[in-house]
Amino acid sequence: xxxxxxxxxxxxxxxxxxxxxxxxxxxxxxxxxxxxxxxxxxxxxxxxxxxxxxxxxxxxxxxxxxxxxxxxxxxxxxxxxxxxxxxxxxxxxxxxxxxxxxxxxxxxxxxxxxxxxxxxxxxxxxxxxxxxxxxxxxxxxxxxxxxxxxxxxxxxxxxxxxxxxxxxxxxxxxxxxxxxxxxxxxxxxxxxxxxxxxxxxxxxxxxxxxxxxxxxxxxxxxxxxxxxxxxxxxxxxxxxxxxxxxxxxxxx
Length: 252
Prior knowledge:
Helix content is about 45%, strand content about 15%. The protein is of the alpha+beta class. The protein has a 5-stranded mixed beta sheet with strand order 1-2-3-4-5, sandwiched between helices. A hairpin with a 5-residue loop joins β2 (about 145-155) and β3 (about 160-165).
């Protein structure tokens, strides 16, 4: 797949314009409104009793020592910084400042953090080209805000793909300590289920913020020593997004 193809070039150009237009419109429409993040209110609303229950027996002590927030933050930061550079190079190219369209692969090769390289190369192999990172979104239902880790052009299916990146959950992402609460009590409270609920709210906010984007898919992407795993947004979480947004707003 060549980044120089005219079809892909048009797709990336249109996507960047839609993102820029959505940012400006949101800034204008929601000026003066105080927005709150969703991570803490989500926990308070749906899984306040969740507790870490330990690693799977397959995870050894050496792995456990580096599976925490520092590991995830380092991978996330390195990958996001590179994607933002890639975005800015595309913007310069679209303004006519450079003749050749940017190619992400040589940029990835320069990354010093192996997991960040594996992550971005895995996205490219799946036809997802990350064109922006830490993209702000706000809710039209409640004064809530968050950020999309990566917005990608889907070179295979068309449209945009949202990526919620999760690093460092190897060995316990499916381990629950109980059930979620309220209308989601049929779901367990494992980190994996939490991540899908978080992505569902983020995706709803993205659609409201960037209304010109008509085709949107969403994925939770896990990156750890076992590789890179992409999970489509669960149907139950997507269906719960509106009600969950309104409930979460009560905890801000």
